[in-house]
Amino acid sequence: MxxxxxxxxxxxxxxxxxxxxxxxxxxxxKEITVSMITQYADLNRATFYAHYSNKAEFxxxxxxxxxxxxxxxxxxxxxxxxxxxxxxLTPTTERIFTYIEDNQKLFYALYIGQKDFKVHLxxxxxxxxxxxxxxxxxSLYGDVNYEMFLHYQTNATIGLILYWIxxxxxxxxxxMMKQLTILSNTKVKSLRKF
Length: 194
Hints:
CATH topology of the largest domain: Tetracycline Repressor, domain 2
CATH architecture of the largest domain: Orthogonal Bundle
Distance between the termini: 69 Å
Oligomer: single chain
Shape: elongated
Radius of gyration: 20 Å
Number of domains: 2
Number of helices: 9
Largest sheet: none
Number of strands: 0
């Protein structure tokens, strides 16, 4: 019996979430009301308030679930191995872009609707690579300050992800994976004036 209730709750929350994501394609986040979400989901307002106390809590859950899914995708390759070489396409890179591609509408809605989306992404990546996964580095030019490197690498990766979202997924996940691998292993040879 409890399993059926859980399934109904999940189904209702998914309907509300999908309604919000679809509405984000036509309206700004500020324009979208609880009434619009429930009408689009073919539910009543009382159902919404049975699950959430307000719209902010609803949006927080969407963001949390999305980031938790990305977190799981990044860490999954480490369930059965302790070390991954990064001079080729890594399973973490593959999973990042596949997860985002599988949830394109959701990521686009969060990108345009959540002003702190980039900050949350940065925190997620920083936490993973400072608490769960250590990036081994080497440099011909001196000792690498891991804290600075982590901020540099995190912002470079997120910058590429945000570029991809902003372009409305103009490239495939496979192409983005290859580009991140290429860019991460590219040495700057020189600078010249245009």
